[in-house]
Amino acid sequence: MKSVVVFVITLLTALMLEAVPFPEELLWFRPEWALLVILYWVIALPFRVGVGFAWFLGLMVDLLQGGIIGQHSLTYVIIAYTCAVFYKRLRMYHSWQQGFFVCVLVSVNQLVDFWVDHYIGNAEPTLMIFMPAIITGLLWPWSFIVLRSVRRMYAIH
Q1: Start-to-end C-alpha separation, the chain
Q2: pTM (2 decimals)?
Q3: By the 8 A CB rule, do 30 and 135 touch?
């Protein structure tokens, strides 16, 4: 029971961080908090947290940001599935190497988001779409340490 509560609290925290308003000039530097949290849980507990949780969290991000319903769900499912397939390999890497992998996965998320936004006419091509992926990859080692310490503190297995 406490594992479910801790998991829900981490997801709610990620959703609250997603809702924090950013100045217009800094929007490109906003990390993908929800994706960061779901990636950690999929790598840490791949048999308990998977594609279904990623879909649900993506749906919550879509509702929170007021975008097209299913846009984040699609990419979160693809990314969670990729992590679930490679979780044994990812556990063997150092956290900075995992951060590079996270950067690549978040880049996929950013590309799909850009593609959908460009299709509906809300985005222009720029390389800045990859900046959230870089920021999220750089934040991975610290978020990994925090989430792992929370998981160990509450003995979640």
Answers
A1: 12
A2: 0.93
A3: yes
